[in-house]
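A brief tutorial aside. Many learners find it easier to grasp structure tokens once they have seen a single protein encoded end to end. The record that follows does exactly this for DUF5325 family protein. Read the sequence first, then the structure, and try to relate runs of similar tokens to stretches of the chain.
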Amino acid sequence: MNKAKLVMFIYALAAILSMIGIGFSVSLIGVTGTEYDKAGIMGVIACIVVLCIIFMMAFKTKRKFKEQGLL
């Protein structure tokens, strides 16, 4: 496997894990009642921020790899 594709796979895996974190945080709000509402909301916000950062880094890296002819 090309090293560039491996890097892009790692970015995709990180994005998937962040999306799973969003789902887990939403379920934390819904299932446990009012005890963990604050933690669930903070988890959703944190995972959305992390997801945006991952996407920005991945698109920059993809553009760099395309310019180099690796993708």
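Self-check: The chain has a mean pLDDT of 90. If you spotted this yourself, you are ready for the next section.
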